[in-house]
Write a structure and sequence with these properties.
With 212 residues, the chain is mainly α. 82% of the residues lie in helices and 0% in strands. Helix 2 packs antiparallel against helix 7.
Amino acid sequence: MSSSTTAAADSTKMEGFWSNWKCQAMELLYWRDMKQSGLLFGSVLLLLFSLTQFSVVSVVAYLALAALSATISFRIYKSVLQAVQKTDEGHPFKAYLDMEISLSQDQMQRYAENVQHYLNSMLKELRRLFLVQDLVDSLKFAVLMWLLTYVGALFNGLTLLIMAVVSMFSMPVVYDKYQAQIDQYLGLIRTQVNSVVGKIQEKIPGAKRKAE
């Protein structure tokens, strides 16, 4: 009974953690706090632009050197300040050194189960698409892959990643401001797409879904 109660408590705690994390992510993407969102957006863009000019090894090494320079300088500064003031405040990073950062076995198992669930779902979906369980969905997937060949010819992976980051920090704000107009145009596009798909289903044998 105690083990099941502990597992339920851990599950509730994990759900609360993910819910809190999602709320914080939405706050950042919607620029509720301009300072935090700007700092994160600028840092990610700086990192990505650095990767376009330098290798991953160089960027990681420079970041590590910058972090070490900051922490070593702060440690020396606090040590000198304590010596001058004749105080004994201890290590300036003691609170972070004492902080528990290791993952428990139960947490690792839950993360592994979540990864396994997503991998299994992805494999089943790919099998369904490549083995043409639903002709329309497979055709949509083929069109998407065909479009991606042109996207890949125009942009490399880092450029697409930069565009994705810019979109993540700009599109939610734009949608929040012009939601009615965007929903209207999206509805028109969805109607046209459904109309085209319906015509394809009527003309291609076996393209209609089983539900129909």
